[in-house]
Task: structure prediction
Amino acid sequence: MATATVPPRRSGDLVRALAGLAAAALGVVLLINAVASVQVVIALAGAGSAVAGGSLLLGRGLPGRDRAAEQAAWPRWLDRAAGVLLVALGVTVVAWRVASVRVLAVLLATGLVVSGIAAIVRAVRGSVAERVAGGLFGGASVAAGLFVLVWPKLSLFLVGLLIGAWLVLTGLTQVVRAARGPRQQGADDVSPARRRLRRWARVAGSAVALLVAVVLLGATALLYRGDPRVAPDAFYTPPQAVPSQPGRLIRSEPMTKGVPTGLRAWRILYTTTNGGGEPQVASGTVLALANLPAGPRPVLSIAHGTVGIVPRCAPSLSATPFSGDPSAPVNQMVAAGWVAVTSDYAGLGTAGPHGYLVGPDAAHNVLDAQRAAKEIDGLDLSPRTVVWGHSQGGHTALWTGILAPGYAPEIDLLGVVAMAPAADLPALAEGIKATTMGKVISAYIAQSWADYYPQLRLGTMVTPGYGRIVRSIAERCAGTLGDALPSAATATQLSQEIFRPDQINGEAGELLRANTPTGHINAPLLLAQGTADGLVLPGEQRAYVAARCAAGQAIDFREYPGRTHLSLVETGSPLTPELVKWTNARLAGEPPTPTC
Result:
């Protein structure tokens, strides 16, 4: 039996061991910091890309392989080209500190795609197992690159974990093999069955990687499919000739979709005006008991919250138009004999643009909806009215209370309820500009106002490069999960605020101040706020209330501990019974109970 000879250790073993230690250390740092700032993750992932490229260039970074067989199996120039590109991309990512997250993500995605293509080409001339493993792993790398492009922040976190784990494994493997030194010639006594097991284990691992990447891409496509709600039908298109007087009914028709048992509903199209008195057409809904008691019925005028800024987002177009919060107290009041009238607001349902958070417009729309509802056959509406509004609707309710005496003096406004209202618009825009939902709201404001106000331009209002993203968010509705999720997902990937800093203090800021409801409200006013609200911040609401109280406005200000922006008005909220009681007290003529 021939004696195996042991070649001397190569001086490169020490270099390989040190490189392995450095790679493992970098991987550990990357794993620890995978949830750190995006810039840190990108820098570490870029360094990992450079290490991966270096291993391809050196060749010896993958010890234990037959170099001659490797050269015969596939062209070495591809490894060198891929290695050079990966090193260049890694160095660029680490050095280019001022580049945007999206630009850096593109560089990393390019590296992943190149690595995937190289793996596929490398596998073409290998064994069956190598071809399958290489093809699967290459496909997974390409799919991962596409995932990075769609989800730069989220996917960089995942890529950081993957690259970190890969660097630790690769680095430790190099250290161990360098310490062992070159294998003895003929000492490889691994059985063929064990070698086959190793090969097909690599195939299984690559298959899992590809499956994960495909699932992530499929989930992304499903997420971004959006709400399939159809565009407004012919009902929302007014005839050529409409009454010149605001608050006139153009048409109405009964509704059956989503109407609670025991109630009946109509959708209406009516005339109104914007804040400047220019004629508009708006749509809305009316909800009443199927068998109303005799006599004029008091009106509950509902100002709805944010649903979007494009026509298809109108509440009257929803499959469940009467189930959104605060539906429980609304249905309770209607069951007691009140009639609920809700305006879609001009530009929702009807042709746009919709003046999102343009207070005077929405107030006119709300008041004219009630006027128009009086013309529905079989309805006898009293002028006695209480206005409810949540979020955007709270902002509208406040403006309705301010403008009602001058715009619609025939309406006897008994009270105004503003629930988590978007009251102080400059403070709101500043306070939530960096949050996910704040970016969605900012996108709505930016796109709506760019279409509504002739002096504003979208390109000059928003962060450079964000115009397309803002338009994408603005095309989706906020009132449905199918549209709200992709909008929120898009917002999570934005590393900067929507508005340029100079715009909050410039023209857009002036309009935010102009649309903040600071006029006096003669009717009793209830303002409700959750202390855990992350959208309309409690501190800002308290400051608004304090300023209005100092100006002589009587307010019944109530805070609800632990309630968020949405849970404040959901079924079971402690606000619900208080809201019903307060509203009925206004109808009964009881004196209000202001806190200031």
